[in-house]
Every structure is written in C-alpha cells, then in structure tokens.
Amino acid sequence: MTFSVPVLVRGYELDTQGHLNHAVYHQYGEHARWELLRAAGIAQDKFIASGVGAVVLESTIKYRRELRGGDEVTVTCAFDWNDGAKVFRFHHEIIKLDGTVAAEITVVAGAMDLTTRKLVANPAEHFRELADNPELLGL
What we know:
Layout: E1 3-8, H1 22-39, H2 44-49, E2 52-63, E3 72-80, E4 87-96, E5 101-113, E6 118-119, H3 123-130
Antiparallel strand pairs: 1-3, 2-5, 3-4, 4-5, 5-6
C-alpha cells in the first residue's frame, strides 16, 4: 500500500515562469513524509522525544511535467528500508488528477541519535518501536 496526501498548488509557490518553484517539490515530499509518520502513530514531538531525529542525506527530483497554480496533485510516500542499513529511502511521486506523474523524488535519509549525533544502526527497528501502525511504514 502506498500512502498519499492531496496538495493544491498555491500561487505563492510559483516561480517567475508560473511553474511550481523547484524548492517546493522538496516541501511537498517532506509534508507527505510527516503525514505518513503521523498516520503511523509517530507524531513529530513523539519522534523527537525518543532522542532521535530524521536527517535527509540526499534528495533527487526527476521533473516529468510542469505544475501550475491551482493544479491539484497527490503526493505519494513509501519507505525502502534498505535491508537493515543505517540509511533508508523515501520514494515519492507527485501525480496530477489525470494520472500524469509530474515528478519523482527519491530521498536518502537516516535516523540520527540526537545525543551522539550519529546515525542509529537499525532505523527500521526504531521506527517500528515508536509506531502504532508500523505496517504503514512497510514494517
């Protein structure tokens, strides 16, 4: 199952050509990630209280079709846990109402121990322990 959230492209998010500004794509992905975590039972304050914070190590966007003000899109989010490695991936698609994929985003992330400032060894286990609904996270 792929998690998704609806988003309306707002006028103040546009660049000078009337397209969705490139930085906003990243914000849409982050919004979908936090909404997925919240749906799984990991609110932001619960996550931070656990002593671990999420860190983005790399983010790549493939632009497929332009987005303009007023476009309604769905932003998907799925985890790829990378078989127990310290890093994992989020995969996003930004999909227009007609089914056209406007962008694909891949994020390499980790879970950082906020005291030692190092990535935790098995982030999937940390997420599983915190989540009320770990199946939403692919766990």
